[in-house]
Amino acid sequence: MATKIYIDQGHNPENPNAGAEGNGLLEQNITYRVGIELAELLRQNPNYEVRLSRPTPTTSLGNSNSTSLRARVEDANAWGADYFISIHTNASSNPQARGVEAFAYSEPSRAFSLGEDIVENLSEATGFLNRGMKIRPGLYVLRRTNMPAVLVEIGFITNPEEAALMNQNPELFARGIYNGIVEYLG
Q: Which residues pair with 152 in a beta bridge?
């Protein structure tokens, strides 16, 4: 039986729940594109079944930040996903801040181990600094999902070099995440 992977492309096309901005780019556009590329990679592998929180660029979930997050979690739970991966870009007031990191609800856990493989492979694929795995039990999408959930910060949209690579080559980021999933579930 195929493993069901729910890909949550962080944020909505516009408010409510629009994402960070940096270097003329919007987080929600980057996460949308990386999610679409990741879904394509997973669909080419018969071991995976995929569902996207935002199947189209205009898909908007909820009418507030909290209902937007709830809609993503409820969709994944109702579908019976085996794993939940939420894609985000990081942001900082310091344009030099850089690197890839991810969050899980607790450690040790399947989500934490999956996140470690994703961050390692994403760092290898992009050349970005590996900032490691962190625990964030307060994050709604990690707390309310019925399955192991990882929130991945694929790089800093506020860092000019990282933002440029995200914009020019979303497939590279998708490939890094995909390689991490395959390594973990291998």
A: 87, 102
Angle at CA 14, nearest 5°, toward 11 and 15? 85
Burial of 71 (0-12, 13-18, 19+ CB in 10 A): middle
The residues pairing with 172 across neighbouring beta strands, listed in sequence order, are none
Residue 160, pLDDT above cutoff 90: yes
* Rounded-to-10 torsion of CA 121, 126, 130, 136: -80
Cα separation of 173 and 161, whole Å? 14
Report the distance separating Cα 92 and Cα 98, nearest Å.
Answer: 9
Q: How confident is the model at residue 31 (pLDDT cuts 50, 70, 90)?
A: very high
Do 119 and 129 contact (CB within 8 A), yes or no? no
On whether the CB atoms of residues 172 and 125 are closer than 8 A, the answer is: yes
